Each structure stands twice: as C-alpha cells, then as structure tokens.
Amino acid sequence: MSRAPRRIARAALAIVWLAVVAGLIGLGTWQVHRRAWKLALIERGETGLRARPVSPPAVARPDDAYRRVTATGCYLPGQDSFVQAATDLGAGWWVLTPLRTDAGHTLFVNRGFVPRRAAAAPPAGTVSVTGLLRLTEPGGGFLRSNDPAADRWYSRDIAAIAARRRLSGAAGYFIDAAAGPPAAATPATTAPQPVGGLTVIRFANNHLGYAVTWYMLAAMTLAAFLYWAGLLRRSGGPPR
C-alpha cells in the first residue's frame, strides 16, 4: 500500500477510535446528569411525604410529583377503571375513580389496590381525599400497551382513561390516596375494598455505577488508542 492511502486509512481509524472514546464519555456524562435528576426526584418524594397537604393544582408540573394534596368532592359512581398492579400485597389492580371537586374540576383518584377486578363502589356523598400527586403514565407497561377499546390498562394514562370514560376536562394527573381506616363490610357487596397508601417511594439509583463503567471504558479505549499511536510513531507505519 502506498504512503497516501495508508495515511488516509490511519487517519480514518483514528477518527473512528476517538469518536468511540467521545461517545463513551458522553454516556458517562449522561449518567451523571441522570443521577442528579434521580437524587432530586428522591428528595422531592421524601419531602412530599413530610409536607402538609395543599390544594391540588389546576395543571401539574413535573416538580409537583409526590406532593401531598387534599381534594374535596364527590366520586362519580360506575366510572371505576382497573389498572394492573404489582404490590407488596401481590398482583392485582389499582382502582382509579374520578372525583368531581367542589370547584367543578374532575380529578382521578387511585383509591388503592384490590386483588381481583370487581366492582368496589366508592363512598357516596362529599369526601375529602388526601394523597400524593402523581403524574400521568401514558402508553402502557413494559412490553404491554394500553388497550382503551377493551378497557385494559397497564399504566395510569389519565388522558386515555378519561377519554374512555367520556370525561372532558379531567386534570392530567392523579392522586394516590393515602391509607385510610378499613372499609366496613356490607351485606350488599362481597367485593374487596381498595387498600390505599401503597405508593412506593423507592427509586433505583445505579447511575453512579453506570457512569464509572462508561468512563472506565473510555479510559481503556483511549489508552489503547495512545498505545497504537505510539507504535505508529516508532515504526513509521501501522503495526504488522
């Protein structure tokens, strides 16, 4: 191979090599930013659990997640939606019920967990619900998409659930109801009553380990490049 094509080949290889190093550094830096975001999310959740409840906002921002709120109004009967759930109590369903507030707004309340999908009538009359504000979960679950036509839900996608229930103007978030006293059994129903207060404030935070891994791979790749470049300088050409 003549000198010019060889030089071009070496330059192209060096560019690709350095691009890989830059990509690995970029992935490490992204994990550093993700770690900062996750720590802020954990702090927000823990702070929300300790804070005094406030009135629910008209529109929720990302920073409103896990804020304690109290809403007063009346549940809309016959409008329950069941969302598949996995909890410390086992597999089952979240029961989401729309609440018409005193201000005329509609909020969805996750009343809690039930082990089987069965009618669980909400309390009648005016109620006051305290819980954690949760942002909507559009799309579905892992490898499973929500099916509104079949009323099959794998995530708490508030916009889609509201559309399925033909409720206009529903707030784009829901409230995870806090644990309340056990519901009194009635002869009129044998359906299990929702168990509230099961919100999990545990977030996997492995981003530091991922960042270190990417940075180490970048350092190893860069060291290999420098070794190769050193061989080229000493031999005047690519190593054979």
Question: Can you walk through the features of this model?
Answer:
The protein is α+β, with helices and mostly antiparallel strands and 240 residues long. Helix content is 35%, strand content 24%. Strands 1-3-4-8-5 form a 5-stranded mixed beta barrel. A hairpin with a 2-residue loop joins strand 6 and strand 7. The longest helix is centred in the N-terminal third of the chain and has 48 residues. The chain is elongated, with a radius of gyration of 27 Å. The mean pLDDT is 86.
Structural class: alpha+beta
Number of strands: 8
User: What's the N-to-C terminus distance?
Assistant: 13 Å
Average pLDDT over all residues: 86
Helix fraction by DSSP (H/I, runs of at least 4) = 25-40%
Topology pattern, helix = H, strand = E: HEEEEEEEHEH
Low-confidence stretches: none
Rg over alpha carbons: 27 Å
Biggest sheet, open or closed, and with what strands and sense?
5 strands, mixed, barrel
Characterize the overall form. Answer: elongated
**What strand line-up does the widest sheet have?**
1-3-4-8-5
Instruction: Quote the beta fraction.
Output: 15-25%
Instruction: Tally the helices.
Output: 3
